[in-house]
Amino acid sequence: xxxxGRSPLPALAFAAVAMVFAILFLSAEKERAVGALLVIAxxxxxxxxxxxxxxxxRASIAANERTFDAAVVGGVLVTALWFHEEHFVLLMMTxxxxxxxxxxxxxxxxxxxGIVNFAGSAFLGIGCYTAAVLTKYAAVPPLLILPLxxxxxxxxxxxxxxxxxxxxxxxxxxxxxxxxxxFKTFIEVNDALGGPQGMRVDPFTVLGWSFNDxxxxxxxxxxxxxxxxxxxxxxxxxxxxxxxxxxxxxxxLSMDAIRLDEIASACxxxxxxxxxxxxxxxGNFLAGAAGALYGHVLGFIAPNxxxxxxxxxxxxIVLLGxxxxxxxVTVAAVFVVILPEKFQVIQEYRFVLYAVLVILILLFRPxxxxxxxxxxxVPGWKAAQ
Length: 385
Hints:
Helix content is 71%, strand content 4%. It has 17 helices and 6 strands. It has helices spanning 9-27, 31-50, 53-63, 65-82, 87-113, 120-137, 142-157, 161-166, 169-189, 225-248, 250-260, 262-267, 272-298, 308-321, 326-342, 350-364, 381-384, and strands spanning 199-200, 205-206, 209-210, 215-217, 220-222, 300-301. The protein has a two-stranded antiparallel sheet. Strand 2 (205-206) and strand 3 (209-210) form a beta hairpin.
């Protein structure tokens, strides 16, 4: 008989409960109902922690990662099908998924290599404008636009490689902040990119099928945003698998060592410049790829879509979720994107909300909602004891 910690049932039960809660939360229209659901969720988490249920779920997820991953993907698809006619709900889901991809890029930079980047929205914008330019001026297959958006973002980001290598901490943060401001100013004064009025992004089309057309299969009809939810989910799955595999590899171990102590890492022969350049480039690539698809989702982009405030949203996702934990990014992105939409009264004060949340997290839970677990140098050693 399987040990309790190795059984997939707790992990599957948790995924099912999370899916039901997501459907109820997205269905709630009144602010009181939304608040009541949040209170119930908080109480359930506290009770589960007190009675040891969270430890059993965590152990089950760790022992059955692929099963849990499949359950989560299935839960997202079921939720999307549940709201297949709700344009706004599907748009929120798509936005959340794409911001998760961009935040995974920051996770590689922040959480693994210790590189501070406050220009996340700029690299997201580079991907958006790459998609706009390619669909308008070039006959590029749409599926190639996503990696090209990431590639262009990584290439333009190489401008910052030298300053990033020569600075640390808040000095590096100032460099990236300056880049984000320069990017917004550049697209505002560049008439070829639409100037302050912005640019139109043509619909994503594959084999003559436009993603902006409603889905009709027999008697089944769904919003065109369902197309983008599925494509964004595929992009997130690939990005998540890449980041998690990177974390567990010797490359991730090298980046962890550099983040913790550059001097000691250099003494042991690690090439600090190589791994910083690698992490910075990969993080920008993920943000650019997400931006390329985000541009198609929006249909029209303008400089005001990529402000410093939007970069702070990405940073807050990484901080709230737990620096270096890919799963924490997914939870925080849903929280940051959907919660202000449900509480319309705080919609205009959402940046104040993000600031307050970040301060509270830093004060009472500095490692984030889902702290990154310690690296296991000998996989499975706990189970053998």
